[in-house]
Amino acid sequence: MNAPRVNLLGLDRAGLERYLAGFGEKPYRARILLRWIHKRGVTRFDDMTDLSKALRARLADETEIRPPEVEERRDAADGVTKWSVTVGGGSAVETVLIPDRGRNTLCISSQAGCALDCAFCATGKQGFDGNLTPAEIAGQVWLAARELERRDDGRGLTNVVFMGMGEPLLNFDACVTVANLLMDDLAYGLSKRRVTISTAGVVPNILKLAERTECALAVSLHAADDALRDRLVPLNRRYPLAELLDACQSYLSCVGERRSVTIEYALMKGVNDSLADAAALARLLRPLRCKINLIPFNPFPNAGFERPDPDAITAFQTYLLNAGYTATLRATRGDEIAAACGQLTGAVRDRTNRRARYIARLRQQPAAAGQEGLVP
Ligand code: SAH
Asked: How does pLDDT run along the chain (376 residues), one tens digit per residue?
């Protein structure tokens, strides 16, 4: 059997250089390849006219530039596009492009499903089918870049957030590779502040992150005390708040004084949205250089949580602003195509049985009958 072809979409500059050096090619040809693949979107080696015929033939023999297969595409009225793409194990993951006031932000998935099972997140309910490869993650970016070329809005891709399905810091090497590709001038050329890896709090890998990439860090906090956070984000039982905040401090001391961590806080009615919660959050974050991003809870069928009333959301935000924080409210986009935070589900081949247990639980609740949108 032939060896599987290397999908060049998943190699950053260092990876391409290593690959080329492996058969005696000049490493600088990696630069030419990067530009063809990511800037110009070329997938046929024959079109890469400034590479020698021999190199083109070798590349065509051993490698490929294979974007992910799109299973479904949905366009919302507000300009948001969501793709469902097929990945290795037979699952599908979702990618969302969000045009917004001068920016084109892409939200990418790093795993098929998610193993963390946060109480309020639809992705977790689908179970888990493993890590995506670097090519599967970078492929999502490649697709969106081609779409933006077609839209020709003069901006192209401006921001990428690892906030789709999965926990990026549990697919560490692949996500670091893609982050570095995103920041490479010869590929996507995004600045380090415009590439953000978001984590539910995988402490050991937060500590490693700054050593491997300069991209920005966001932490999904959602609670200011361990008792509540244990319930909302089960990973907190392993890495409680004090350790998580220490890790954020270490990260900042590594990346430099002038940078900050983004704290994500999903507001859930009657759970974490009172002024006392806001005060506790303000107190907890006092030592940390951070910006707070409030996400009004995005509903999905049988979530068991609700979005707070608009007044409560405003009061929470105002409290933080008065306490001296930068506190932004994340606009809900792509709601009608279930593309908002926490609504991405794809079609994950669950290897953990979590989905089956979730469905069984729903079936025991008579109130849930007839609205099992998550359960086809
Ligand atoms: N696993 C990573 C990456 C996912 S980012 C992380 O936890 O950071 C997706 C963001 O949306 C996270 O902050 C997540 O907590 C939040 N989220 C999940 N479900 C949500 C929901 N139903 N409503 C609002 N935000 C949600």
From this structure: 567 899 999 999 999 999 999 999 999 999 999 999 999 999 999 999 999 999 999 999 999 999 999 999 999 998 899 999 999 878 999 999 999 989 999 999 999 999 999 999 999 888 999 999 999 999 999 999 999 999 988 899 999 999 999 999 999 999 999 999 999 999 999 999 999 999 999 999 999 999 999 999 999 999 999 999 999 999 999 999 999 999 999 999 999 878 999 999 999 999 999 999 999 999 999 999 999 999 999 999 899 999 999 999 999 999 999 999 999 998 877 777 887 777 787 778 777 777 777 667 666 654 433 333 333 2
Mutate to test the pocket of ligand 1, among 295, 300, 335, 345 (most ligand atoms within 8 A of CB): 295
The alpha carbon of 72 and the centre of ligand 1 are apart by a number of angstroms equal to 22
Residue closest to 277 by CA, chosen among 200, 355, 224, 237: 224
Q: How many angstroms separate the alpha carbon of residue 109 from the centre of ligand 1?
A: 12
Active site (annotated) includes residue 290: no
Which pair of tokens denotes residue 282? 């303000």
Look at residues 180, 192, 170 and name the one whose alpha carbon lies nearest to residue 138. 180
Could you tell me if 282 and 323 are in contact, meaning their C-beta atoms sit under 8 angstroms apart?
A: yes
Q: Nearest to residue 142, comparing CAs of 10, 17, 48, 46?
A: 10
Cα(269)–Cα(272) distance, integer angstroms: 7
Cα angle 359, 365, 368; round to 5: 75
